[in-house]
Sequence to fold (732 residues):
Amino acid sequence: MNDITIVLADDHPIVHEGLRVLIEAEPGLAIIGEANDGLEALRLTEKLQPNVLLADLAMSGLSGLEVTRQVTKRFPLIRVIVLSMHADEAYVLEALRNGASGYILKESSVMEVTKGIKEVVAGRRFLSFSLSQESIDAYIERAKTHTLDPYDTLTSREREVFQLTAECHTSAEIGRRLFISPRTVEIHRQNVMRKLGLRNQGELIRYAARRCLLP
Amino acid sequence: MSFRKITNSKLHIISISLLGVFIVGVADYVTPIEISLAIFYLLPISFVTWFAGRIEGVILSSVAAAIWLIGDFLLVERPLSYAAVPYWNAIMQDGVFVIIVLLLSRLKVALLHEKQSSRLKSDMLRQIGQLNLAVTSNFDLESVGKSLLDTIELFFPGWATSLMLVNEHSGSLEHFVSRNLEESKCTTELLNWYGTREIIKSKAAFVQNHHLDRRDDRLFARMGWISHLGLPLLTRGEVLGVLSIFTDEEHNFTDEEIAFFTTLAGQAVIGLQNARLFAEIRNGHQQLKELSRRLLDVQETDRCHIARELHDEVGQILTGLQMTLEMTGHSCDKEANITLAKAQSLVNDLIRHVRGLSLDLRPSLLDDLGLLPTLLWHMERYSSTTGVKVNFNHDGLEGKRFLPQVETAAYRIVQEALTNVARHAKVDCTLVHVWCMRDLLILKIQDTGAGFDPGTAIRAGRANGLTGMRERASLLGGELSIESISGTGTCIIAELPFDETSDKMTANERYNDSPGR
Fold:
């Protein structure tokens, strides 16, 4: 069986050196290229066509996420593993969304790196042991967009102005009732229209009627 | 026909007066000679003098005297001591009438003059009042100067005026605004003119009623300016500037006019000073705002730099150290292995600690992944450390990137608001909503906790966090409203305007653009 070919990209010399020693100590793995920044990583990967690209997330020149995105898009056969110091699900998710097959924390044990390389070459996804699919799913759930009511963005003063405007009071009248100047009323009214996406008083009244805000 | 209409036409007046004189003459004739009706002739004569003029009055006087003479001849039949007596009497009569006519017309002229001058005075007063209003309601230096010259032009069209001001910094006199004087080198000439120098030296008005004919004056004379009045603009004994007025024909400046112009100049001084003070305050305010923006910027940049240094440099070295330890472990005996494992766990603690420190300073997520992941991460961490559950909802935020300063401000505002909730609200649950709509990013952080009075808190200076949030919002041109009532909770709504075009920047470009890289 042929060795698994690897391009290693990490811009930090100590970690880079550590990883190289570690991988070379493992039989069946061969480092065929080493890059010190994102752009070099991209160039080497294109030239050498390795089985696996091990890319640091935080690289100068081009971030690991961007390298991952470009490599997986252009060379679908090359597996990318992102190495990172961030255990946050947001980073993991972002890496996976950019096409990474694996996400390995730098603090995890040496074993994980070699195991991860073999796993992704076998076509499976690999995450560091301390990361779990459940927590990523939970994150996706939390990150989901909700439909929020723009009416909730109004401050209580803006609500008062909105209500009185919808009841067809003039700025001067509203100002007298709320003890503010007509100019201030006008500013509040414009703000309300802007937030609710209304263009004129007619739309404002229709909006109020639709929402049953009129007495 | 109304009285006014009659008095408007000379012909009417004269005919009516003639008729009057004739009637009096007839009456004189029919009444016994002993009764003198001479005084009644004065009625039409006064009438014609007042409304038609002096000459007409004198002529009518003569006509009346003639009629009286005719009457005398017709009535008197007895022999007279002298034949000339009736003539003499008629001339006497005429003389009295003429004297009255002259006095009356003089009186009328004096009255008219008085009326005119009082009208002029009230006009001047009104103009001073208007200038006062213009000057006090306007905080713009240039419009104050223009209103002053406009007022003068209104009264004396065709005159040339120039306002020169002393430069606050250099102390030299500079041309500010002028009327009818721009067409030549006059404005620059005026600055060095001996008259102007005299005004500054004596701090008093400089009047030149006669022709400007000194050698120095020739330029002005050539341009057609004849008399001159110069006034210093004084404030607390200091010369603020000079107002110069040139007339297009020879003019004697009266004391009244000088007093009028001095009053105008006084009004202008108030306005100019207001305008200068206002400009100073505005500049100060601007500087303060700029300073506070720079302070926030520097703070953020420093935090970002230290956070990255900790995370990337220190963190990576520690990672390297840990790898080395792990590999050493493979080739050691059992006892050394236990010690190494201990060291490894210490290094792990250190890595975690450094990372925590770095994230506290500024989460790298904010630069790498944007606002939403950062907020999600922060709330997770916040809930686990404070025990306060965050009910977080967002709309229109997913996959969206804003300008770094908008993301930073939004994150810091939410962070500060949540810290306040944990510290003061005494609740176990809080609500955070974030909207991204059109060109506004709106944050709402609400709790149903203890609440406070925002006014007193900010005034008492106990709310650095609140002012900081306000500051961040207003620096982006946004707004932040704090509504809080003791006992019912707090609601903070921040509106941050953002530029849609910034979305097009990819995450990666931003990553590399971010400070500290």
